Amino acid sequence: MADFSTLKNPQWESRLYVARASFTLLVVLLLLGILLWRYHDLQINRHQDFATLADNNRIHVRALPPARGLIYDRNGVLLADNRPGFTLSIVVERAKNIEQLLSDVGELLTFKETELARFEKLVKRRRPYESVPLRFNLSESEQALIAVNEHRLSGVEVSAQLIREYPLAHELAHVVGYTGRINERELKRFDPKRYKGSHMTGKTGLEKFYENQLLGEVGYEHVETNARGRVMRVLERIDPVPGADLHLFLDSRLQKVAIEALGEERGAVVAIDTVTGGVLVLASMPSFDPNPFVTGISTKAYKALTGSPAQPLFDRALRGQYPPGSTVKPVFGLAALDSGTVSMGYRIYDPGFYQLAGEKRKYRDWKRSGHGSKISLYDAIVQSCDVYFYDVGFRTGIDVLHDYGARFGYGDKTGIDLPAEARGIMPSRDWKQGARGRVWYPGDTVNVSIGQGFMLATPLQMAVAVSRLATRGEVREPKMVSAVGQQLTPVVSDPAIINIPTRYWDLVLDAMSGVVRDLRGTARRAIGKIDYTMAGKTGTAQVVGIKQDEKYDASKLAKLQLDHALFIAFAPVENPRIAVAVIVENGEHGSSTAAPVARDVINAYFKYYPQADETAQREALQSKAVLSPLESNNESG
Fold it and tell me: Among 248, 265, 282, which residue terminates a domain?
């Protein structure tokens, strides 16, 4: 048998073993070192990074929307309130399958296509872990359905939020306005930080104009959640700052009186405090309920409003533009006197029509037989003589009429603190050339001289004009809000003045007083017996044209073709406190239709604010902006 012992080399084998063992040990140590280095890197160097990531999975920042500021009238009556409501939202990151989740929720609640479409748009713009609203104003039964099935609806949240509510709804819809969901155009314009957690914004009225003040400042809270996204505890909280409350000059009691006086008629009523410029009444009828707009009005209901011939969504007081008719005669009378066109004793003969030299056309007076001879400015205003103003207006010229009309607020925005105010039109040569591409004709001046033709004015502008007449030229911008939070709206104690000699003011204002008290006054029978003094002017604005030799016959016209009825007034004459403008669409006669509305409003004003308290009321209003009271002639003018 062969002997292999001589082939072994113990020393070589020992060295090989040591080398292999050493290499293995070196590899093990190297791997251990790498493991220790990696462990150190993760636990020491990058500890804060991973701790932050871990916190992000369980700690989230939630926006706390502020309570929207409330709106009150001058007596503290609540006009815009916040009521609790519940919103269904979804956090996409917590939903395992968003499409399946929407399907599951859809089995419990019925969603409109508009709701789902809006949700999809909001999902694309959201931030991580930001809840996206799907349904607002959940009912109690809907809340119960979600609560019972919450265990299988991972990512669904039901949160309590404040929803706008308008207690006086129809009475102040155009004034207060309403809030609605933020749309894409608004979202691009708004500061995302200010609207974090908020889904509503002011759409119309005071809600829109004072959006920045009513909104408030958003708050935040850091919350710890479990794996299912449920909040376990609040770690830190920064409370939101509520929006500022608005206190108005407006009196909701007078607003109600104005609306009741209009009845079923379409029209507008504006009343202004002549001392401060504060708007006491701003009524437009018919109106609508703004509450459905807050959480989303149905398509059917919205079409019913927009398709209504009565146009309830249209704010007639602020945006309605009408020929002011004979209500401008006191202003144009002052223009003729102050410009030196005629003297105070100037008189005319009124045969019932007026003709320009060399023309066959006859400009008719509302009284077909005319007012006779020796008609003065006083007579022309009291009896609303058109022929007098045809003559005097033509003599004065459109340039002067435009200048004085503008001084009294016609043809430009009044500056009221409400959005979407119309400018009206106080026509001029340049205006016609620019708007119509035609030159100005003498007949145009004749038409404007009685508030017809191209001239248009809003009821608010008419109220501003009569307020300036009442105060003998004091120029004050009309204001809705007397205080924003604790910040009072300044009351102008030294306003600009329309400088016109006192004797001219005396004549015109005495004539306006004669409209109500004189036996020939166009509003004497309509106003009746009152226990205070009033000055006014009736007006009628044509809706459809009448041929040269035709006579106005209401029986042959549809309701919407009848003349508009207008009336402006202020009281008391000796120390004016309130100025009112009324328009009744298709009401025919300012004396019989519009004047009683103004009378009812002024009667109510003196009932709530007796003359005996006048001095105290004025002092209080000047010291702080928030008050706690506060013959049927068929004339064309």
Answer: 248
* pLDDT of 161 over the 50 cut: yes
Can you give the CATH number for the domain in which 193 is found? 3.90.1310.10
Domain contains 387: yes
For 215-226, how does the pLDDT look when each residue is reduced to its tens digit (9 = 90+)?
Answer: 999 888 777 766
Token pair of 584 as six digits: 């009744």
Active-site hit among 131, 252, 287, 326: 326
Burial of 594 (0-12, 13-18, 19+ CB in 10 A): buried
Identify the domain boundary among 248, 268, 290.
248
Q: Which residue segment(s) compose the domain that 528 sits in?
A: 252-548+578-623
Question: Can 326 be counted among the known catalytic residues?
Answer: yes
For residues 129 and 165, state if they share a domain. yes
Buried-exposed string 372-409: b where 16+ CB fall within 10 A, e elsewhere: eeebbbbbbbbbbbbbbbbbbbbebbbebbbebbebbb
Q: What is the pLDDT of residues 273-305, one digit of tens each?
A: 999 999 999 999 999 999 999 988 888 899 999
**Cβ distance 96 to 55 under 8 Å?**
no
Across the range 453-477, mean pLDDT stands at 97
Alpha-carbon distances, residue 461 vs 137, 457, 536, 568 (angstroms): 40, 6, 16, 11
Domain membership of residue 504 (yes or no) is yes
Give the integer Cα–Cα distance in Å for 138 and 179.
18
For residues 271 and 131, state if they share a domain.
Answer: no
pLDDT band at 621 (very low <50, low <70, confident <90, very high): very low
Q: What predicted TM-score, i.e. pTM, was given to this entire model?
A: 0.82
